[in-house]
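Researcher: Here's the sequence for the chain we discussed earlier.
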Amino acid sequence: MKRGAIAVLLATGLGTACAHAPRTAAPAVPALAPHAGLSDPTTRTISEADAALARGLSESHEGHLNQAREAFDQAIDFYLSYPGGAYANSRLSEAYRRTLETVHLRDLESLAQGDGFTEQGSEPASIDEVGQIAVEQQPTSAESRRTAEAAVEVEKNDLPIELNDSVLACIDLYEGRLRDWFASALARGGRYLPHIREVFAAEGIPQDLAYAALVESAFKPSALSRARARGVWQFIPATGKRYGLQQDWWVDERGDPEKATRAAAKYLKTLHKLFGDWSLALAAYNAGENKIQRGLARYGVSDFWSLARTKAIRRETKNYVPMIHAAIVVAKAPEKYGFVVEPEPALAYDAVPVEGAVDLRTVAECAGATLDAVRGLNPELRRLATPAGRSFQVKVPSGRGENAARCLAELPAERRASFRTHVVARGQTLSTIARGYGARVEDIALANGIVSSRRLARGTELIIPIPPKARMSTLAALAAPRVPAPRPNSGGDPARISYRIRRGDTLGSIADQYGVSVREIQAWNRLRGTRIAAGSLLTLFAHR
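Model: Thanks. This is the structure I predict for it:
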């Protein structure tokens, strides 16, 4: 059944895991050696190209890949438009090579980020640490008890609060070794608490139960436990599905704070009807209703606090309920416990309808927002893309929806999805298709909603999730920079060559033949992709 969670950040060194690897700063453009002023054409060209390159790196850092590509192309164009070309003199050719290598490096970093199929990161849910906590029920000072009693008396609590030794010990825990964690969790709760209270009030259950999410996940939608419980409310897959939370290859609504909150309210309401007591309902939310029912029947008790003194439930559940009571007491009167908390603003966003798979980096670019901002507003998306084959309401920062909707509606077909597709030929099966792409059968099936692989109709278009290793081995080979070098018995600057494409040629084979890179050929010929047609002419700058 449902598994609960509490983040445990002990002063002894248990650290905070991040939902995603921290983003690094945009790569810096190497500084140029000083030259004799911008009146020098070479210096002026290098300066203009470096400015465009810096813009491209900044846009790329924000996840705006199309704008980054335009800036990178502009930087390269400065060199190609120079009288005599990019190799007109040694200073220019060196700066040009440096620019190409920087762009190649960023291309590889983009490949490593994923093409939309890479599953988004999660962070360990603290439920996996709860069992290790020893909540020491030592005698609490009279002052601590008076502080708690005063807080309960002054604050309006719609959930009956116990101030027994277990709850007071948990308050001590929040004041002591979990102090930093509690403060950050409470601040983060500002994003979600207004909506949680609104939903709970509409369902007719105590609004104070909202603080169960603090104990569950520290209000982190990306929290994932070893029991595969996910989200702010830590639903396991089965319970999530029971309460209407969709879970497939593209989306996991357990990570959607709004939908998961509505599901949690209904589940808690059901549990209270079953047990007639909120502490027992909370225990069942953590351990499962069957576990609590068996424990009550076996030991002949009727309340949680008596059940907690038996062996019917694990330490995790014994800690879970008093920690929620303690969290309510401290969270509603933080100043009495020395906390100075600035709640984060509640989430504000516009919902924009999107048809089919669109890379979130494209969504961010259309919205004029960072990729991190768009990802943070759509934590239910398991991939770096909206779902293929259906409509989806993607969230963008408030005030950006109209522009984003217009931009997304006008996207050309080639920018709507950056995913590889495959049209099924006669006799092909999922196994043969998967082998051809280095992909997994189950990933292709899940991505396309295929239940049985026996009925793959000829002409069916499939989305193919390419594993990162396979993607890197094929695409990195195309992107890897190769600095032009003189061939044996040759020297001097590279010459301009007109090459007519022959049948069977690829950009990779042509690049290998002339000792240049694919990216250089693309830049010289204003090519956006790698498709070339036999009979067409390419311009190359290479040593013969």
